[in-house]
Amino acid sequence: MREGARQQLSRRQFVSRALGTLGGALFSSPLLGLLSCGVPPPLTNRNTRRVLADLHVHSMINEWNKQTALGVRYPGVAGIAGKMFNASGMDWKKCYDAGVDLLCVTHFNVFDEWLSMPTDPDPEAARKTYMMMDQLEAHLRDKVSQYATLAMNADEMKTLLSVSKDTSEWRIPVVHTVEGGHALGGDLSVVEEFAKRGTAIMTVTHFFNKGIASSANSFPYFPDANSPWPHQGLSEFGKRVISEMEEHGIIVDITHATTTSVDQILQHTTKPVLATHTSSRSLGDHPYSLVDEHIEEIAAGGGLIGILIDPYLLSNYSSASEAEEHGTLRDVVRTIEYLVKLVGHKCVAIGSDFGGFITPPKDMKRLSQIGKLREMMRREFQSETFVDDILANNAIEFLQENWGAKSK
């Protein structure tokens, strides 16, 4: 389908047509599973410096899609969706071998949020999120335990990060995060349950306004994906959600919020906030991107800005297909440079959004290829320490200081 045609579809038309197309391929084989258990792999010459602390990665989204009601009923749909639309991703062993330091794995699947669009909120949302958490924990325990392990709180994360990467005891710490307050299902008590399950971060809003805050359009083929009332901002329930998150030590993530929502979230929060996977509107004029004033306000409040690795949202390509053809890691470095000049390098980090149905740079398709970005940044900034901070140290320090820090 041509890009111009895609931009004319409403979100419901898109979902309807996409499911119709995928339904014709239900016989397709499901995606292959990830790595199996075994003895710890032999040590490699992995980089023992800080490599990457990713604030936002979708390592399990294809697996979660298969476990939705739609995926269970039509197994081929999830497999086809992953193959057709999920152009970026990660491999646990390759990330381990690359020396990746930390993965904040976010809980969201395509079908649950899109297919519950008419239901605001979905009363089953929390149960579905717990199911995703269970799946990730089982996967870490039963299939990739030689490469990664769950950190339930900041102290556990710190302990795991203290293990030397040149020993067989090293494992990548993995942290639960949630993308979208719609996962609460309209129930404030779920915030405390998420905290007990080890959730470090929650994005306040996501693709659609689910009664918490208005959301910005982040898809070129969803022209109406944002709230029909973009100036609505943060609802009264949304204010209570934020207060509850701060009470239970879950970090507020403002990514995907409209400008009005960000304004009001920053007014309401009392603790440092995150933008886990975002971009600068000065460089890429998208509703999804942050304006300079908000970047500066987040930084001034002790917050952190995570840059996503998606050229389409980082720059002004005329279409997603143009970004796919021409977008490179130069778009990422350009954005990092801009933010460093604006707020300083200690306020900048990485939230790749890999595995999350984005358009990755043509020179980096998998998270384990992070060395390519490191080398480009090293040449640009002429400082290994500077690069270490942006790629990993800033995110690690922010989580250690703010995850679990409750309101007084």
CATH topological fold name: TIM Barrel
Radius of gyration, taken over Cα atoms and rounded to an integer in Å: 20 Å
| Individual helix count | 18
Tell me the CATH architecture.
Alpha-Beta Barrel
CATH class: Alpha Beta
Question: What structural keywords apply?
Answer:
disordered N terminus, 9 strands, 18 helices, globular, 408 residues, three-stranded parallel beta sheet, six-stranded parallel beta sheet, alpha/beta, TIM Barrel
What does this structure look like?
Strands 1, 2, 3, 4, 5 and 6 form a 6-stranded parallel beta sheet that branches. A 3-stranded parallel beta sheet has the order 7-8-9. The protein has helices at 3-6, 11-23, 61-66, 69-73, 75-85, 92-98, 110-115, 125-142, 154-161, 189-196, 236-247, 259-268, 292-300, 311-314, 320-326, 329-343, 370-381, 384-402; strands at 53-57, 102-107, 148-150, 172-179, 199-203, 251-253, 274-278, 304-307, 348-350. Mean pLDDT is 85; it is low at 1-45. It contains 18 helices and 9 strands. It has a single domain (52-402), classed as TIM Barrel (Alpha-Beta Barrel), CATH 3.20.20. With 408 residues, the protein is α/β, with parallel strands linked by helices. It starts with a helix and ends in a 6-residue tail after the last helix.
